[in-house]
Design goal:
Blueprint (H helix, E strand, L loop, with lengths): L2 H29 L7 H15 L9 H24 L25 H12 L15 H31 L9 H27 L9 E4 L5 E4 L5 H9 L20 H25 L3 H28 L2 H5 L23 H14 L14 H12 L10 H21 L4 E2 L2 E2 L2 H27 L22 H16 L14 H30 L16 H35 L5
Length: 595
């Protein structure tokens, strides 16, 4: 690792830390219904939305009604996105004629299983893409379906997190807020203003925003290259802010139109973690003890630093097989050394490692380098980040309510060790809360390990229904340990609602489209529903006075306990399969037998 690279990582974190309190304070005021500096602009629109939608702003919901509202919106989102994809060939703003007989040969057909997978992907905030967006989706589909879902799915995640916070903050209450009000306020006061400002900044840095058709350019070699155009910057800003990750181009944030400069790269990194980090401060403010929020922030930060420096070390160390051939592998100031395969020269190893760690911490599928080309240990870090149920800051809202589920487990373990009934922020943690937390954690691991096992042993015969047609059908991904890692990464990404991929696997097949779609649903809703059930249960309880025997949950001891719980649960669950994938691949590399 270089001092310059370490400095870049620390500068990023310092800016993130500086943003956490002011942005968290603003979000607290929004969700508490207090007046903010944006109210003169958006309050009339907010009232109009309530009036047109029949929403009673002052009417709150039980956790059951809150869940039902969330599910109904998700169901509508699925149907809307699915139908728009299937009908895009008959709709306007489709200059490339996708899904029509005039579509270019390079276009990907919008099959029923692909539309199903994509609709689920965007409603669950995963944005997994089994296709190249710039050769599949019309401008209308990109804007009206995918970009809109970036807002909606992000707002749903934040609303659920706020509802769960209310469960800890309230006592002897039967309600946890109004889902429709929370989603509306989040969209109007938080997502739209930040996204608007970020879009302008990205356009200023060189991101495109137009409705032009493809441009044909002549390369330096004299060949022709088709360069797609479109309304990119607005989608780019929201895919980062909402930790969505669905790229406009197949190369995602490695494409110069999506991520043109180092300053744009830094802006995108800050957009990825700013809301998730700020929600920890919202938690502290709402439970009337900001130390509790900072403890969660500290636990997330400690796990973040472990991941980013392990990944950076592995990538800067490079591949010893290449070193043995005489290739310069050490940073000299004039060349980067290390493992530059799959990385943009514009960003280098440090920023690629940082970006890879952030996006897999933040439940975002955006990438500015190809994770499939990372060293085995470098690729292990983003893979394990997703297998922690995306609690290292995590997706907007999803990271906080997932971490709170782990906090429930942590205080339960702490209570067992000291022989006391576990308590957290003044609420007694009992059988129901622990069961709900365990259900969520086990459900995702069952999907990841179960589907990985099936996909590793099922005989995908050439041209069979479950496989893609064509001569490559019999071998949809690499062999041996790395091939297993690719399959494991795909299902970890789906269950973690992340959306990134190792990219060496052909996932646009009926089998992967259908199973990863189910994987994403489980990862989203079998975390949200238990979280809301816990919120409803806790809101109805009385506050427990703090005594000398109460386990402090705002100090270093709890930060260590919570971080250790996340690591130990993840290690116990996934160590066997990781041993067969990236870990054995690492030893093969050291032995000089990697191929």
């Amino acid at each position: 690792m270089t001092s310059l690279g370490i400095g870049q990582i620390l500068v990023f974190f310092a800016i993130l830390l500086a943003l956490t309190k002011p942005l968290g304070s603003f979000m607290y005021r929004v969700f508490e219904g207090q007046r903010t500096f944006l109210h003169p602009i958006f309050r009339p629109l907010e009232r109009l939305i309530y009036r047109l939608s029949g929403i009673r702003e002052d009417e709150e919901q039980s956790w059951v009604r809150y869940s039902a509202s969330m599910i109904s919106l998700s169901l509508f989102s699925f149907l809307f996105v699915y139908l728009l994809q299937r009908l895009q060939g008959y709709l306007p703003l489709n200059p490339m004629h996708f899904s029509t007989p005039q579509a270019p040969q390079s276009a990907t057909p919008m099959t029923p299983d692909l539309a199903y997978n994509t609709a689920i992907s965007f409603l669950t905030n995963t944005n997994w893409q089994s296709y190249s967006p710039d050769t599949t989706m019309s401008y209308l589909t990109q804007m009206a379906a995918l970009t809109v879902q970036n807002f909606v799915s992000a707002a749903v995640g934040i609303a659920v997190a706020v509802a769960m916070i209310r469960g800890f903050a309230r006592h002897t209450a039967e309600t946890i807020g109004n889902f429709w009000v929370d989603v509306t306020r989040c969209t109007l006061y938080v997502l739209i203003p930040i996204c608007f400002a970020a879009t302008l900044l990205l356009v200023g840095e060189g991101c495109i925003q137009n409705f032009d058709g493809p441009v044909t350019a002549t390369t330096l070699e004299g060949t022709s290259q088709v360069i797609e155009q479109g309304p990119l910057a607005s989608q780019e800003a929201m895919k980062m802010l909402g930790t969505n990750g669905g790229g406009y181009f197949n190369a995602n944030s490695a494409h110069p139109y999506e991520n043109p400069t180092p300053l744009a790269n830094l802006l995108e990194e800050l957009l990825l973690l700013s809301l998730a980090a700020s929600l920890t401060y919202v938690f502290g403010k709402m439970v009337r003890d900001t130390r509790q929020g900072w403890a969660l922030f500290a636990a997330m930060s400690s796990l973040f630093f472990v991941g980013v420096f392990v990944c950076y070390w592995a990538e800067q160390r490079g591949n010893p097989i290449l070193t043995s051939t005489g290739i310069q592998n050490v940073y000299t100031g004039s060349q980067p050394g290390g493992n530059m395969e799959g990385k943009e020269v514009r960003f280098g190893i440090a920023q690629s490692s940082l970006f890879a760690t952030i996006v897999t911490d933040a439940s975002c599928g955006a990438v500015n380098s190809m994770h499939d080309s990372f060293t085995p240990i470098g690729g292990l870090v983003p893979l394990f980040n997703m297998q922690t149920d995306e609690v290292i800051f995590g997706g907007v809202g999803a990271g906080l309510y997932s971490m709170l589920l782990y906090a429930v487990v942590a205080v339960f373990i702490g209570g067992l060790m000291v022989g006391r009934t576990p308590e957290y922020v003044g609420k007694k943690i009992e059988q129901k809360e622990v069961k709900m937390a365990i259900i969520a954690i086990l459900a995702t691991s069952l999907c990841i390990l179960g589907f990985t096992a099936l996909s590793s042993v099922m005989p995908f015969a050439q041209s069979s229904y479950w496989n893609a047609p064509g001569p490559a059908a019999a071998n949809t991904n690499n062999a041996a340990a790395h091939g297993l890692s690719e399959i494991l990464y795909a299902y970890s990404s789906g269950a973690g609602n992340n959306g990134s991929a190792f990219a060496g696997i052909n996932a646009n097949t009926p089998w992967y489209n259908l199973t990863i779609g189910l994987d994403m649903l489980v990862g989203r809703f079998l975390f949200i529903i238990p979280a809301l059930a816990i919120a409803g249960s806790l809101a109805a309880k009385k506050l427990i006075p703090t005594t000398s025997g109460t386990l402090p949950t705002h100090g270093p001891l709890f930060v260590i306990l919570l971080s250790a719980t996340v690591l130990i649960v993840g290690a116990l669950t996934y160590f066997p399969v990781l041993s067969l994938g990236p870990i054995v691949e690492h030893f093969q590399m050291l032995d000089g037998k990697l191929f």
